[in-house]
Amino acid sequence: MKDQIEPIANAGFYVALRVGFSFPEDELNQLPDPWIEYYTAHGLVVADPAMKWVYANSGVARMSELNLPDPQRVLPRAAHYGLEYGAVVSVHGPRDNGRRSFGFFFRDDRELLGGELKELEQILRDLHGSKDESRALTAAEVEALQMQSRGLRLKQVAGELGISESAVKARLNNVKRKLGAKTLAQAVSIASARRLI
User: Which segments of the chain have a pLDDT < 70?
Assistant: First the structure.
C-alpha cells in the first residue's frame, strides 16, 4: 500500500480500513509527526471538515473543494505542516454494515490531478475489499470471546464448549493476536466496535 501511495501523496497520508463504530481494522499513518502531535493535542478530529466529509459522502474530493465549515481552521493549519494540497477518499459497500474505509492524501507542491484521485480511490476500494483472512476470527474464537465478554471464567467457557481450559486459552490468545490487543478486555472492546461480537 505504502509503495503505491507515496509517489502520489508525497507529503504524507493516512489510511483507515474498514472502520466500524470507531476503530479501523487496519491503518497506516504516514503524516508528519509534528502534525499528528498538534492534531491530537488539540482534538481536531471532531472539528476536521475532512472527517465530516468522510462520514457524509462516498467517493473522492480535493480538500480545497470541501464546502464545510472549518471554524478551528484545520485545513490552513495542516498547510503550515506541509500538507497544503490534499484529497479525501471514502468508500463503502452495500453489505458493509456501516463500515467504511477512508484516507487523507497530501502533496506539498500542487493539487492532486484527476488521474491521481481516481487511482487513490481504486487503491482504497481494493484495500477495503481485501481483508487478510489470516487475521479473521474463526467462529470458535468468536464464541469463546463472547462467553468471556459475558463474564464467564475459563473453566466455565471450557465446560460449555466441551473443550479443555488450555484450548480456550489458545483461542483467546489467537483473538488477542489477530485483533492486535494486549488484554482480553481490549480484545472485547475492539471486537465490539467492529461488530464481531
Answer: 130-135
Angle 184-193/165-179 helices, nearest 10 degrees?
A: 60
Q: Which residues pair with 14 in a beta bridge?
A: 29, 104
Q: Residue 82 carries which side chain, given as an amino acid letter?
A: G
Q: Tell the burial category of 52 from Cβ atoms under 10 Å away from its Cβ (0-12, 13-18, 19+).
A: middle
Backbone angles phi, psi at 161, to 5 degrees: -90, -15
pLDDT of residue 134: 45
Run of H or E residues at 21: none
Q: CA-CA distance, 11 to 32, in Å (whole number)?
A: 8
Q: What is the pLDDT of residues 63-94, one digit of tens each?
A: 999 999 999 999 999 999 999 999 999 998 77
DSSP state, residue 192: H
pTM of this prediction? 0.67
Q: What is the pLDDT of residues 48-65, one digit of tens each?
A: 999 999 999 999 999 999
Q: What is the DSSP string of 40-67?
A: HHTTGGGT-HHHHHHHH--EEEEGGG--
Cα gap 148→139, rounded to integer Å:
14
